[in-house]
């Protein structure tokens, strides 16, 4: 019907003019728009009211006309279809009865159908319910199958944590997070699990770090044992090196010296077996670091921190702690230098520390690096060297220094086997060697002093040939003349000589002990032995000899024996050189070979002994001179020499007889008999002459009588007789008498009173009184003159010239004046 209205034509009003046609057309369009259900009405209505002032009224009129037109059309249409509608209603009423009958039949059929399908419906509902349950069960099983692995893994995680298998627990956590929990993440229990995993990781980190701290504490306790084991095995290798070489030649297999994590540590490319003849002992297990220390905590902690992505933190912590432990290990005990055990414990701890670090270096990847271990070792090496320098300087026992050297060698060899550079330690050994030599020198100084103190300083008596062979076996003595003599006989040297020679050889052996295992050539060892022996001879033995010679209780006889002893020791030096050559197998002709300086040592000692002989002789002469008791105012002499002087001369005779024991052979360095005896005799005579002259010229002596001069002259005559008696052979002519020539000429001048000759010939080479000094003559003349004046009233030379007293005084005054002029002329 609506579509019919759309297509019905609108009756056109009577057209009066063109404007009405336009208006009609415009309203037609508006109505068309209003009748259209698709177009909005607001715009259309607005155009009606906005067009003209009377447009609304005209629109309403047109609208009413339009409505009436449509009503007429509807009425026409209804009239056209009315009869059809009536027919349709009539037919519908006829069908009504049939419909009711059909409805009854359908209702009856439905009732019978419902009654018949009620049981089927009940069974169908049961089937549906069972199918739903089955589907729910399948779904539950499926979900449980997803959850059970998660629960099993979580249970496994708990078991691993309880059994402290933390690394496996972390792997389980990783699987839970990445594989299992994401499958069932919608369930709350999985969310709780996921929330617990970070907490469990932190607990594992804390537990593993605690285990690491326990490990670090344990390694401190076990480092001593690890180091002791490593050093013992290194020492066994050195001890049995020759046996190992022999076994290697026989083709036998030996186990490594020290095995750590599958690596073999050997020294100089050799292997060691504790018993070269026993194969069962060859198969014996060698203790390793794993046998003494449980490294599992550090492995476990490393793996745990690696899995947790925090490996760098763990590495830094481990290295920091080990550096602290290294500093603690390197701190020595205050009394370490007192015993070798203190040094051994110190070295054991250090070796144990670096053996563990070497094991960690090779058993882990990157926990410690070679650069880190090298840094630790360089730091430790500097500290070790400083400690050893300090503590070794306190040590005064050569045996302890030698044991320290052996420990340093084993310590260096052990760490060298693990790849640590130890050259600085061997350089340190040269400093320790100097310290060792110093302690040896101090020890042997005491030995030498004891030998000198116990020596009787008399020739060695030998009663039988066995005794002679015993002495010769200890000291290289060969003398054809003495060997021809019958027993009993005496050897020229005293018992200290073979003892000194033996002790020098013992010193060489002791010095050689330090050179062992230093990896030095025979030439270097030979040079070290010779230098240390030179120090012993030139410093220690020389000092002991010099001190011995200066001791007050050493008399002339002892000094003579010392000269004999040093002569024989000097001759034995070449045997000492041969002794060193035989030890080191280095020929003396080798370039740069050091020579022994014993010749100069013993020569200096002899010179000192000779000088001491001269000094003691002079001291003895002074002692006798002090006994002189001249009566300087005596009128006449006693007619015989003074008693003190005769005693002095007898002493000198007996003393010079001792010099006949001095060695006298063709050796230039040993021919001391003539020289020493002659020098001593000449020195004694000169000193005696000087002492007698000083006695005359003593300033405290104011006057001397001619009787005293005569007595003094008698004493000088005895001195001259002693000099002319050749107390020591070898003097030519009157050489020894010339020691008293000054006294003789001075006394002759006064005894003869030959002043005119003295004054006339003074200064001439042929003068009879050439050795008389004017000052000396003046001093003595003044003393004699004063004596004459005091005794002029007694029996005196001037008593005969009492009448000519003035002339005599004038003569003396003239001589004095001339002597003074000579003295003044000499001084000007």
TrEMBL record:
It comes from the Eukaryota. Residues 62-231 form the Exocyst complex component EXOC6/Sec15 N-terminal domain. Residues 1-23 are annotated as: Disordered. InterPro entries: EXOC6/Sec15 (IPR007225), EXOC6/Sec15_C (IPR046361), EXOC6/Sec15_C_dom1 (IPR042045), EXOC6_Sec15_N (IPR048359), EXOC6PINT-1/Sec15/Tip20_C_dom2 (IPR042044). Gene3D superfamilies: Dsl1p vesicle tethering complex, Tip20p subunit, domain D, Exocyst complex subunit Sec15 C-terminal domain, N-terminal subdomain. It holds the Pfam family Sec15_C. One of its GO terms (biological process) is vesicle tethering involved in exocytosis. Keywords: Exocytosis, Transport. Residues 425-783 form the Exocyst complex subunit EXOC6/Sec15 C-terminal domain. The keyword RNA-binding does not apply. One of its GO terms (cellular component) is plasma membrane. Belongs to the SEC15 family. Component of the exocyst complex involved in the docking of exocytic vesicles with fusion sites on the plasma membrane. This is Exocyst complex component. It comes from Dicentrarchus labrax. The lineage of its organism: Eukaryota, Metazoa, Chordata, Craniata, Vertebrata.
């Amino acid at each position: 019907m609506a579509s019919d209205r759309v297509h019905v034509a609108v009756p056109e009003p009577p057209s009066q003019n063109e404007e009405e046609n336009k208006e009609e057309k415009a309203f037609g369009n508006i109505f068309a728009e209003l009748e259209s259900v698709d177009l909005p009405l607001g715009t259309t209505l607005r155009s009606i009211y906005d067009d003209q002032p009377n447009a609304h009224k005209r629109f309403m009129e047109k609208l009413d006309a339009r409505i009436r037109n449509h009503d007429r059309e509807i009425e026409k249409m209804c009239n056209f279809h009315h009869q059809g509608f009536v027919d349709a209603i009539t037919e519908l009423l006829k069908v009504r009865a049939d419909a009711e009958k059909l409805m009854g039949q359908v209702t009856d059929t439905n009732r019978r159908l419902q009654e018949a399908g009620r049981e089927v419906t009940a069974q169908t509902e049961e089937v549906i319910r069972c199918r739903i349950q089955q589907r729910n069960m399948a779904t539950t099983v499926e979900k449980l199958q997803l959850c059970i692995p998660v629960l099993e893994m979580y249970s496994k995680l708990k078991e691993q944590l309880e059994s402290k298998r933390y690394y496996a627990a972390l792997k389980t956590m990783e699987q839970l997070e990445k594989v299992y929990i994401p499958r069932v993440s919608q369930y709350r229990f999985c969310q709780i699990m996921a929330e617990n995993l970070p907490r469990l990781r932190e607990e594992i980190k804390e537990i593993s770090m605690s285990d690491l701290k326990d490990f670090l504490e344990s390694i401190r306790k076990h480092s001593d044992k690890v180091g002791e084991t490593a050093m013992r095995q290194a020492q066994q290798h050195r001890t049995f090196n020759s046996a190992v070489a022999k076994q290697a030649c026989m083709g036998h297999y030996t186990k490594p010296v020290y095995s750590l994590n599958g690596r073999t540590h050997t020294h100089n490319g050799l292997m060691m077996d504790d018993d070269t003849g026993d194969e069962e002992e060859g198969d014996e297990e060698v203790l390793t670091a794993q046998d003494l220390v449980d490294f599992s905590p550090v492995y476990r902690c490393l793996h745990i921190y690696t899995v947790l992505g925090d490996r760098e933190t763990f590495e830094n912590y481990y290295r920091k702690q080990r550096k602290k432990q290294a500093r603690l290990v390197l701190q020595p005990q205050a009394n370490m230098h007192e015993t070798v055990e203190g040094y051994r414990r110190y070295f054991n701890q250090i070796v144990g520390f670096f053996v563990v670090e070497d094991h960690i270096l090779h058993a882990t990847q990157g926990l410690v690096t070679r650069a880190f271990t090298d840094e630790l070792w360089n730091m430790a090496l500097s500290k070790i060297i400083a400690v050893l320098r300090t503590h070794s300087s306190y040590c005064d026992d050569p045996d302890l220094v030698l044991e320290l050297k052996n420990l340093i060698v084993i310590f260096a060899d052990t760490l060298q086997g693990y790849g640590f550079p130890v050259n600085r330690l061997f350089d340190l050994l040269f400093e320790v060697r100097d310290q060792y030599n110093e302690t040896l020198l101090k020890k042997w100084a005491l030995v030498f002093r004891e030998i000198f103190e116990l020596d009787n300083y008399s020739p060695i008596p030998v009663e039988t040939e066995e005794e002679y062979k015993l002495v010769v076996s200890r000291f290289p003595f060969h003398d054809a003349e003495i060997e021809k003599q019958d027993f009993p006989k005496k050897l020229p040297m005293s018992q200290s000589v073979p003892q000194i020679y033996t002790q020098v050889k013992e010193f060489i052996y002791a010095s050689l002990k330090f050179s062992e295992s230093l990896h030095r050539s025979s030439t270097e060892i030979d040079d070290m032995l010779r230098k240390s022996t030179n120090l012993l001879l030139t410093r220690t033995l020389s000092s002991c000899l010099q001190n011995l010679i200066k001791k007050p209780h050493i008399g002339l006889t002892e000094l003579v024996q010392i000269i004999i002893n040093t002569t024989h020791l000097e001759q034995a030096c070449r045997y000492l050189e041969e002794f060193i050559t035989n030890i080191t197998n280095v020929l003396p002709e080798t370039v740069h070979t050091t020579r022994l300086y014993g010749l100069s040592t013993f020569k200096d000692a002899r010179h000192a002994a000779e000088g001491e002989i001269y000094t003691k002789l002079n001291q003895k002469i002074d002692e006798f001179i002090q006994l002189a008791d001249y009566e300087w105012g005596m009128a006449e002499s006693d007619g015989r020499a003074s008693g003190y002087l005769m005693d002095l001369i007898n002493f000198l005779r007996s003393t010079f007889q001792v010099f006949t024991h001095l060695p006298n052979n063709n050796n230039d360095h040993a021919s001391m008999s003539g020289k020493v005896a002659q020098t001593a005799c000449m020195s004694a005579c000169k000193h005696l002459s000087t002492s007698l002259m000083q006695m005359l010229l003593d300033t405290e002596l104011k006057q001397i009588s001619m009787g005293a001069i005569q007595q003094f002259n008698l004493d000088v005559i005895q001195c001259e007789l002693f000099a002319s008696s050749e107390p020591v052979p070898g003097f030519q002519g009157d050489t020894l008498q010339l020691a008293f020539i000054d006294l003789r000429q001075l006394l002759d001048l006064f005894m003869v009173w030959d002043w005119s000759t003295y004054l006339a010939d003074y200064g001439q080479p042929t003068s009879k009184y050439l050795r008389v000094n004017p000052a000396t003559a003046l001093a003595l003349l003044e003393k004699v003159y004063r004596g004459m004046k005091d005794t002029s009233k007694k029996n005196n030379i001037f008593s005969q010239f009492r009448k000519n007293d003035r002339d005599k005084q004038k003569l003396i005054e003239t001589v004095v004046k001339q002597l003074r002029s000579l003295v003044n002329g000499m001084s000007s």
